[in-house]
Every structure is written in C-alpha cells, then in structure tokens.
Amino acid sequence: MSQVTVVGSGVMGKGIAYSCAIAGYTVFLNDISEEILQRAKKDITHLLETSFEKGYVREEVYQHALGNIHYEADLETAAKDSSLVIEAVLEKIELKIDVFKKLDQICKPDTILATNTSTMSPTEIGAQTSRPDKVVAMHFFNPVHKMKLVEIIRGLETSDETVAYVKEVASKLNKESVEVNEFPGFVTSRMNCLIGNEAMNMLMEGVASAADIDKALKLGLNHPMGPLELADLVGLDTRLRNMEYLYETLGEKYRPCPLLVKYVKAGRLGRKSGKGFYEYS
C-alpha cells in the first residue's frame, strides 16, 4: 500500500495525514471546501517545517511529505485509488454513515475503510456498506504526531485480515496498537470520559480550582495532562457528544456534567474557541 486517503481535515484529520506522509505514504486529504483545505495545508506545512527545523524528521522525509500530501475537495478523486481510507469527521453517527456509504461506492472492492472514532460502532457503520469485513475503527489520539497509541476496534464482521492490515499500518506510522472488541467507548474513551466528567463535577461543586484539580492528577497520579486541560484540547463540544453517546448506551454514570453542557451552550469549547476551563491567547 502506498496511498492513503483521510476524510476530514480537522485536528485529527490533519494529524493523521501528517503522520501518514512522514511514514512515506502518498496522502489525499479531503474536506468539503477548498477554503477549509487551504487552512489545513497551512497548518500541516507549519508542522512539517517545525519538525524539520527541530531535527525530528530528516530532510528527505520532510521533502517527500511536502510533495506527497494532496488537498482534494472531491471525494471521488481523493479516494478512488487508495488502499486505505481513514474517516475523521465529526462524532455524529449519521454523518459517518453517510461518508461510508459514499466511500463504499467510490473505492475499490479491496479498499479498507477505517473510522477514527472514539466511541461509535464500527459494526453499525460497516453494516451500511457492502464490505463490513473491511470496516474497522482506528482510534488515534490527539496530538496524533506525538501520541504513540492507536486503538484498533474490531466490529462484528471485521475480518482477521483487515485487523492485521491496519495493525501493520499503525506500526509503519511508528505507533503501538491495542486490539479491542467493540463495546461503547472502547477502552480509553470510557476511562477518559469518567475521569474528565468527575473533574468537571468537582470543579462545579467547588472542591478545587481547575488548575489544582489538574495539578493533583498530574503530580499525584502521574497523568501527563490534567483532565480539564485535556478536555479543552479535545474540544468541549466533542467531549459532550462523546458523553451523550456513552450516557445513551451505558447509562447513568456517564451523564454529562451540567457545567460541561453550560460551557458548550456558551461557546466555551476549549482551545479552538480561545476559552474553556482555561483561557488561551
């Protein structure tokens, strides 16, 4: 395999495209408009330049990646010749299913279709295609170029060959992988959402400040990032969608904290809006 398509050029899509490019793949990054793709190109080019200047990537890798990421608004052009397509759109099941239905019509019969979801069902998504055995979830973590893990989630019909294939891709991206049998929230999202939601409840109850809650978990439990910092990085709207899905599928313990709901209604979405649990210049 030499060509990968990434659908969705948000934070995760940009990170996946960057990681695939520096691993030597030809990458097509797709989104709904040229304007969005030009913003993505600017961000990825900046990350490539910074990585090269700091010595994280060699010059030949940098040059290859610059020339081998193609920004394409037409989904058919972006996906028709790829051996692997990774979807990285919003965490909305209807949107993901719509993308997969289109990809199923566009892509070659042997193309693997992967969803970068943190909670959604690859079984449900795969059932809407003619190739459920070739549908799998590859859950990358933010920031993709730094985080070492990819959760590989097997749907009901996902074949052993598909799982082996995406494990090999993860390895070529210099990632470790874990295989998970599908269940809502998989492994990491269930734990992350519980910890983050409890931190939000403690903040709402006045137990401690956001900074002290985060400091306590970083220094007392050896977490690399505090749960409120992490929620701001992920995006509070994204976290709320994840919590609502887990609440719907797993029950009361995943009821979203009222403070999270209030912040999203106020437009306080974290780093991307400039303000969440913290303020960002």
Automatic annotation (TrEMBL):
What is an example of a GO molecular function annotated in this UniProt entry? 3-hydroxybutyryl-CoA dehydrogenase activity
What's the EC number here?
A: 1.1.1.157
Q: Which domain of life is it from?
A: Bacteria
**Matching InterPro entries, A to Z?**
3-OHacyl-CoA_DH, 3-OHacyl-CoA_DH_NAD-bd, 3HC_DH_C, 6-PGluconate_DH-like_C_sf, 6PGD_dom2, NAD(P)-bd_dom_sf
Which pathway? Lipid metabolism; butanoate metabolism
Keywords of this protein's UniProt record, alphabetized?
Oxidoreductase
- What family, per the record? Belongs to the 3-hydroxyacyl-CoA dehydrogenase family.
Q: What class of enzyme is it?
A: oxidoreductase
Residue ranges of domain 3-hydroxyacyl-CoA dehydrogenase NAD binding in the record? 3-182
Which species does the entry assign this protein to? Oceanobacillus caeni
Q: Which Pfam families match?
A: 3HCDH (PF00725), 3HCDH_N (PF02737)
PANTHER family documented for this protein: 3-HYDROXYACYL-COA DEHYDROGENASE FAMILY PROTEIN, 3-HYDROXYBUTYRYL-COA DEHYDROGENASE
The 3-hydroxyacyl-CoA dehydrogenase C-terminal domain covers which part of the protein? 185-280
Is Cytoplasm set as a keyword in this record? no
What's the protein here called? 3-hydroxybutyryl-CoA dehydrogenase
